[in-house]
Design a protein that fits this description.
By secondary structure, the protein is of the alpha+beta class. It has 3 domains: about 5-125, 2-Layer Sandwich (Potassium Channel Kv1.1, Chain A); about 150-235, Serine Threonine Protein Phosphatase 5, Tetratricopeptide repeat (Alpha Horseshoe), CATH 1.25.40.420; about 255-610, Neuraminidase, CATH 2.120.10. About 25% of the residues lie in helices and about 25% in strands. The chain has 15 helices and 32 strands. It is elongated. The termini are far apart. Pfam families: BACK. It comes from Helobdella robusta (Californian leech). This is BACK domain-containing protein. Keywords: Kelch repeat, Repeat.
Length: about 625
Amino acid sequence: MKKNENDAESNDGSTGEQIVLISKSGGGHQVDRNMLLRTSGYFHGLANSGMRDAHYRELTLECLTDESLIEVKDYLSKLSTNVMENGGPHLKSLNEVEAGLDGAFYLLINDMIDGYIELLLKHLDESTCIRVLDIANKHVLINQVVKKVIKYMSKNFKEISERSKTLLSPDEMFYLVASEEINADSEIEIFNLIIKWISEDQSRKCFAEKLLTEVRYNLMTTNEKQKYTAILHDLNLNISCSKDKDSNISRTVGMLFVIGSTEKKHQAKSFFNILPVYDFVEASTISGDGTEPSPIKFKPSRRKQPPFDSFCYTACVVDNCLYLIREETRNNMISRESFVYNPVDAVWSKCPNMHLPRRDFYLGGLSGHLYAVSGRTRHGLTPTVEKYVPSENRWYMVEPIPLAVTSLAGCVCNGMMFVSGGADEEFFAQNQVYRYDPSCNKWFSRAPMLTARFSHVMTCTENKIFVVGGKTEAYESEPFDFLKEEIMDGEMYDVESDQWSSVLKLKLPVCDLPSITINNFLYIFHDTSCLLIKLNLGKYLKEKKTSNVSSSLSVQDRNANNNNDNLVTNEAMEQNSPCVGAHPDDDCQILTFMNHNGKTWFDCRYFGVMLMSDV
């Protein structure tokens, strides 16, 4: 049998017994027999089986090419002479890496497999991602490589060519579109990619329903929904497109924006500060090595401020438009003015005034409409509720809420609006919960919270509602001498069972603070202190909680904890926040954020997500 002349004698400095590996084309490659026996599961099994092939000077490997055996020889040679590079093998070409993996997997050389997987991932870029996937799939490297490549494609979604994306296999495509973290400008881009992928090959149509079910249709605008409805109709596909399911933004698409002031002296300066949702989530992720994350920096936008003195207002995003309800003017007059901002055209417009001037009310979106619930007028509290219909540019009065309160919180769940808590006319905190059904214009009482609270945060994800923080009231010796105590905990409500349970403890007070829920994490912004609370709600979705949690925890006990927490919190703020940073598995993490120039003064009034034009 023909041997490679270069392999006639050992060139690797080894003094051990040699064996020649013969490729399928007849090329011979001499390696150290003992090293092969020690590292190769294939050769070790062959030797233990007693087969004569293991004792010959030559071993024919009809499935391996010369290129593969050259890589095997190179690896074993360096192993024999202890010249393996620190930090792993040196960089090789993609062809060499593929050949090396072929040889390593066939001969079952596990350490070589690990090293060449590392080399394979070093080649990952926008132009090679499909090739890397092909190599990984050949050896079923799903967790080691495929999922990492899909994560890379998710991160570089905008840079990777459409052609590369349409070459993905069905499983790879599913991994991509099911990912919560995709660096895309809008959800419609993901929908369009699926349609293009299906259109490339008619045999792929059988995967359409599975893929299209992963699209977050509730993140689309009305115009986008009209487009996808027409496309689904043409494809004769009946996909459940749930809308207003919950408060959770279940994909990192679009632009996260903060409205408010970044300068103490000029409250209207830099009204819009923005950051892509994907970048925000990445920046707020704590690494497993304990490294303290850098402050999250928002970028100023040149977009115009609202056409009024932005002193006191409530905000909400509905159908990719930002609505501002002016609550109070500079001369302390309660207002009923409303404005809308279109981020695509970058234009502010005046909306009709509400029927009733109010402040400290809940403002939320439901089914493309805007709702203003309860609150305070200049004559006292009001139970009235108003609905704004954008297509008609008109406010309507709807069914009043059963109990008039101020500083209540709310959210949307399964096409219904839920509101909770608030303070009554005598400033007593309330624990009642109401559900509004827009189909019948009725309010329904639900199980009350375990703790009465107002000025709290309320959100919903995966059929569970969470309330966090807020304040309660406690009488002192004199009538109407109140202490507004912060509540340093949270509760979870199961919509199906109509039951509440206590779920978390806070590290910082949460009162009248802007918040947003992304991928089952609740982010709460401590405006002027520039501290960011990140709560892992997903942890509690996985745990089965019972509802027999007693609400008899005394206000005194909770307040004692509050006082200690507040002492730590204030000290932390004064000492550059040593409480910042946490273990990545901590369900309550404290991060920092700031404006673009690194200043730590940031008066945040509202956070939301919109699709914005390049202005």
